[in-house]
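call fold target=CmpA/NrtA family ABC transporter substrate-binding protein
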Amino acid sequence: MVEWTRRRFLQASALAGGALMLPGVMQAAWAAGSDKPELDTVRVGFIPLTDCAPLAIAAYKGFDKKYGFTLVPTKEASWAAVRDKLVAGELDAAHILYGLLYGLELGIAGKPKPMANLMTLNQNGQAITLSSDLAQQGVRDGEGLKRLIGQQAPGTYTFAHTFPTGTHAMWLYYWLASAGINPFDDVRTVVVPPPQMVMNMRIGNMVGFCVGEPWNARAINDRIGFTAATSQSIWPEHPEKILGTRREWVESYPHTARALVSALMEAQRWIDASPQNKQETAQLLARRAWLNTKEQYLTGRMLGEYDNGVGQRWQDAHPIRFFEDGAVSYPWHSDGMWFLTQFRRWGLLKTDPDYAAIARRINRTDVWQDAASAVGGIRAPSSPLRSSTLMDGTVWNGTDPQGYANRFAIHRTGA
């Protein structure tokens, strides 16, 4: 296991604003019991999706008890329900869409509310599904879809995502635009809760959707759709769900926040430790209390084994990840800033925000660092910014967010 060195810890502390104590001081305080969580139970909302796995494992394997509290998972019907209950204080924290949390902070996903991102729960693992009707017309990818859409009046075809500022909306818009399709002018988009995606496609309410698993695999199994793109083909190792809460909750219960993140880090590490652990996770998630589905819809894609439903199979180089030596969970500032650039691109923000300041405010690297030190064996990155290359060749590294947001040829009119 890799221990934090004094130098790396001080470096990480400086990036987070220098608000942390030295490791020896913290360890002494914890040994004295001063880090005891203020709350005995923590209510965490989730949507029944594969990427809620860290919550399920933390509760099932007792990682919550290890850190002195009881995790109470609460299943919700939609992302709007998660938003409302989180803001109202009915939930302490939630498995939540990255962009939903940022939208709340900015007042474009509901009434403005100061929010906090404590950690990233997973990377990758979402997909864009197109209907079997489109497949029968020869559509296999974005290029084929553009040709078909060009033969119809604008708005003829409807696509669904899960929340206006959510990750699935951003993946869908980015993929369509990369194929030359304007997601606001050329097609119609609607919001559908994840568990209702397959049913709505079956009855013809839309020809495509972007959602997390197991609903893309379920569409293939039910022979109503095929996987046109994975989210990791759009952005390899992209951030997806996060552990979100209200800023006031973190300030009121800092030890509980640290304990919660620690327990979920332990769960992430356990899941990714072996294929057998991922299979056991799929077995747990299939139960009624969690996803209430068949294990077969979960296991393959958790292991990176893909079948797109129209004859292509592959072992994905960027499968759903939960740990990756702790790098998955780190709340990178650049990850949050990317969603802000897309909000600007698509007219959800009318002016350029202070990208870096907003990310620093929401992404609580200080809480993550406390938790990582408690868990042990997890390095802090040397910078809160990371570099990625997306499907269209654009490089995102967080250094020029305004320039990045304004570089796209396809954007929302008036944005």
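return ok
The CA atoms of residues 120 and 242 lie 4 Å apart. The first strand starts at residue 41 and ends at 46.
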